[in-house]
């Protein structure tokens, strides 16, 4: 591509000399057949513009491929984030990074740097050509051009600050739009569409203000540079005219010289236009580069080398405190969970159940005390090791837009048809399969799946992967009691090797009787731990008033 660009710019510079030939022919200084001259010029133009088109095409291909690679790298980075870091960034800001900010970097930084390269080639060639005609005027032209070129740098600080503000505002705007669109149904049914549009208008307005400010500085810089560039250009004509008057240049040389000066002043003017854009794009590029290098100490220090756990492996919490926002959320927890036992975790809303599971999965670190799995600090374990062994199902398992098969395979190596069907049946979707198939297209909003069926599909996805231990966070919340009871029956009938921790708000006698241990959490403290038959447990459960 560089060669094509260099050759194209060389042809543009040679183009100026065609005027000299035409004037020389017109003044009778050169004898050339006009037909031959016309055909030669036509051929030259075809080649020059053909290369111009090719250069443009290769340039845009390079930009498109770079954008594609950048988006790929960003997505890879996103999927290396811990769930906690993912929550911290927020989906809207992450969407902004792979869309608008990537476009910003490619168009305003990378694309403009490529243009800068073209202009640099053009200036260098034009300079070489003008020197052959008259080195003195070339020097004068260059000196006259310098102020126009360096003017944007005087505004660098202003341009950098205003561009950084635009980048920040784009992130906020995308986060707001993502949030509003995710709540579409809520807003629609609360007849709050108008309020949502107003809320959007505020974000949109803030974005516009920052963009306008940035545009004001870029345009100011551009206007001044344009003036300086015009002065440079007209000066070359005046200087040329003086030289012709003094007989130090002929008319043809003057035309070539002034045309070549255009090849100097035009790219110089363009450079002054692209510099503010590069400064702006650079801000977005710095942000994306920071994100690509975002350090997560937790996943960077793997200690455990084994990828399988013994049946006797356990999670151990010893004197664990967890503090956030100067609030003690978990208090002095001591707990041991064997991976082959079935546990129930109960407690009122806000008692710290979900926080406890995050601690087990190493998503958060204890403020004091230790959380270990197989004797290793959970927080420092390689994420993959945990994710290979522990299956997590949150209140609302996500259903991706695609077939049921896609939702089970998770876009990875396909499981056999028999395994997929077996997993669906094990999760209680046998009768659903009578009317649908693995190729039925579903989504998170699809009416083809009821709430319970959605949860069962998510459960089937977990069963397929044969985890050593499962964490079910309010798996049965919102489900029909009969369906919930059937689901719990299936879970508590699983082979003894497979353990799980089930967070529940509702009482189900079979589940409570079959659980190896019931853990009762209250205000961040374990207030009881034992079998359903234990008097202490029964007493605590009675105070909790669990639903059915
Ligand atoms: N990172 C955090 N920063 C601030 N507060 C937090 C953080 N994590 C949890 N909390 C607070 O700790 C409390 C317990 O939250 P948690 O989600 O663990 O409760 P829960 O028992 O799972 O509740 P529910 O049954 O309603 O889901 C809540 O008041 C929550 O606001």
TrEMBL record:
GO cellular component terms, semicolon-separated: plasma membrane
UniProt keyword DNA-binding present: no
Keyword Transmembrane assigned: yes
Compartment(s) where it occurs, according to its Swiss-Prot or TrEMBL record: Cell membrane
Lineage top rank: taxon: Bacteria
Topology class, membrane: Multi-pass membrane protein
GO terms for MF: ABC-type oligopeptide transporter activity; ATP binding; ATP hydrolysis activity
Assigned keywords, A-Z: ATP-binding, Membrane, Nucleotide-binding, Transmembrane, Transmembrane helix
Domain ABC transporter: start-end pairs: 315-548
Gene3D superfamilies recorded: ABC transporter type 1, transmembrane domain (1.20.1560.10), P-loop containing nucleotide triphosphate hydrolases (3.40.50.300)
InterPro entries the record matches: AAA+_ATPase (IPR003593), ABC1_TM_dom (IPR011527), ABC1_TM_sf (IPR036640), ABC_transporter-like_ATP-bd (IPR003439), ABC_transporter-like_CS (IPR017871), P-loop_NTPase (IPR027417), Type_1_exporter (IPR039421)
Stretches assigned to the ABC transmembrane type-1 domain: 1-280
Transmembrane segments: 6-27, 34-54, 136-155, 217-239
PANTHER family found in the cross-reference section: ATP-BINDING CASSETTE SUB-FAMILY B MEMBER 10, MITOCHONDRIAL, ATP-DEPENDENT PERMEASE MDL1, MITOCHONDRIAL
Record protein name field: Uncharacterized protein
